[in-house]
Write a structure and sequence with these properties.
- By secondary structure, the chain is α+β, with helices and mostly antiparallel strands.
- It has six helices and five strands, in the order H-E-E-E-E-H-H-E-H-H-H.
- It has a five-stranded antiparallel beta sheet.
- Helix 3 runs antiparallel to helix 4.
- The N and C termini lie far apart (79 Å).
- The N terminus is likely disordered.
């Protein structure tokens, strides 16, 4: 965009920089909410829940299963949880969910650290080029973390729904998606949006007002050059005409000494 002659472009680039900084702060907040949600979803025990009411007083009224433990609520008000110590005995989708959620939290933490260096409103992180590289790297980490959070949530939901619709599974063993799955979906969306914002905030080439050189149109520039040449010729003619006759003589005459 070429600014007008009566405008040096400083106000335009200032508004553009402020808008980009605001988007970066918004993306940082989304990434922070995403990593907090991913950590909470990883630790919650209610990835799938069942609400079967029994007739006996000692019958469990609610069961919850998570990535690391299984919890049970009894009608007497007691609450007990059991950790899943054996990894090999777990189904494939549960092992995958564990691994991907841990990697999601690690990548999201790395992306958040790089995002703090790539923010334009901070003084750390080096110059403009270094901040651009840090911002793009943080966006890549956040996008990858979002996909890693989305995969286990989708796979886990598919397994729960498939078992629920299976007629061969007893009613007491059927589960529904719990709150942790919804938290994982929302966290994945926050991480993806934050990563995309950081990737796009430094896309393209950024020029400030100091990089602008305002030049006149070609016809105006040619007219100025012609005027300068004419002024130089007039100055030379004036200097030549102002010389005295004695200065124009190249030899000596006898009359000058009589």
């Amino acid at each position: 965009m070429i600014p007008r002659e009566d405008d040096d472009g400083s106000s335009y680039f200032k508004r553009r920089s402020m808008a980009s900084t605001g988007m970066q702060i918004f993306g940082f907040v989304l990434a922070l909410l995403g990593i907090m949600g991913a950590m909470v979803a990883t630790l919650l025990p209610n990835w799938k829940v069942s609400a079967d009411v029994g007739s006996n007083i000692i019958t469990a009224i609610s069961q919850m299963q998570g990535l690391w433990m299984d919890c049970t609520w009894y009608s007497t008000g007691m609450f007990s949880c059991t950790l899943k110590y054996s990894v090999l005995s777990l189904p494939a989708y549960l092992q995958t969910a564990r691994t991907t959620m841990v990697l999601c939290c690690v990548l999201a933490a790395m992306g958040l650290c790089l995002a703090s260096l790539g923010l334009k409103c901070t003084h750390w992180g080096g110059g403009r080029r270094s901040k651009q590289h840090a911002s793009i790297a943080s966006g890549g980490c956040l996008v990858a973390a979002g996909f890693l959070c989305l995969v286990p949530a989708s796979w886990f939901t598919n397994e729960v729904i498939t078992n629920f619709l299976d007629s061969n599974v007893p009613e007491s063993n059927k589960f529904e998606p719990g709150g942790a799955v919804y938290v994982a979906f929302v966290s994945a969306g926050f991480l993806l949006m934050g990563g995309c914002i950081f990737c796009m905030s430094c896309s393209g080439k950024r020029h400030g007002p100091q990089d602008l050189i305002l030049l006149p149109p070609p016809d105006k520039l040619l007219l100025q050059q012609q005027q300068q040449q004419l002024l130089q010729q007039q100055e030379l003619q004036h200097q030549y005409c102002s010389l005295s006759p004695l200065d124009n003589k190249t030899g000596y005459s006898l009359q000058d000494y009589v």
